[in-house]
Amino acid sequence: MERPLLPLRSALVFLMAVISGMTAGCLCWIAGEGVARGVLAGLAVVGLSVPFFDRLIAREAAGDPCGEVDEHG
């Protein structure tokens, strides 16, 4: 059996970042800023979304939805 190219968690982080970037770029374009500014806004959102979603999924994967440290362990 072959291994996947990307782990499921990484693929999910990149997918969510791309969807966020496309949404931001489309909203910027619809607002009348033009295609070039929409593309730049979308790329900026993708760049900022990757670390955000990476930390968000890592926190929930650890079993602690609030990100707080338990006193007992």
Automatic annotation (TrEMBL):
The keyword Transmembrane helix applies. The chain crosses the membrane at residues 12-32, 38-57. Keywords: Membrane, Transmembrane, Transmembrane helix. This is Uncharacterized protein. It comes from Streptomyces cavourensis.
